[in-house]
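Hey, does this match?
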Amino acid sequence: MAIDATDSAAAAGTLTLGGDLEVRRLGFGAMRLTREGIWGPPKDRETAKRVLRRAVELGVDFIDTADSYGPAVSEEVIAEALHPYPGGLVIATKGGFTRSGPGEWNPDGRPEHLREACEGSLRRLRLERIDLYQFHTVDPDVPFEESVGTLVELRDEGKIGHIGLSNVDADHLARAREIVPIVSVQNRYSIEVRDSEPVLEECEVHGIAFIPWYPLAAGNLAGGGTIARIAEAHDATPSQVAIAWLLARSPLMLPIPGTSSVEHLEENVAAAGLRLAQEEFEELFASGG
């Protein structure tokens, strides 16, 4: 698939979060705007900002980040690049990790931490309210309902609009839904890694958006196999086929491939217009790429 500046995320179609936030089904994940280990500022801050601006130009209206990316860096760069935000752009962020160094992630679901994390995100993103705030991970040392309850309090205070979850199983999703409406779940999922299939199925039953993180984590993307053959047939790249497969997997799927390169961004967005035949989808589903 030749990269074309007219290719737009609009080709992916839309879904609605919480009844009032309509977004295109191909977003942008801003984790990779930081350095290796998701630690520290971008190697080239101006390039990082160009990537974000280009994403919006290409029709992306959902950007996902977290206070722990950098930490703080990803949110700061988003605000520098895009504030004041164009109408309809949804900036989703997350809280629930602390960082002690590159590649180190420490769960922290204490109410005081989540409140502090949310307040910090509001400041860095220059927002009065975060449209979608997601509990980043379950903390085994803090009662799950206590963590979710803090997000309910923040919502009731007008600091967040909707609540999502990340890195949860089906039981956590059910327990959270007993407390508050959940509009999204962000779990690891790709053409090759499908441990969260039961969670995706629950999301489909209840109309909850499913945001796959690490959506291009397929070991066969760089090699041969089924995905390479199908990519060649469509004059596309294996990464584009992987994105198209996710979009075809469920109407509630919202992939957020991330990159620090404008070229790779354009390639990813072009995948919104790629349509797989049903037999191609099924073959990839069976082979895992």
The chain has one domain: 9-287. The mean pLDDT is 95.
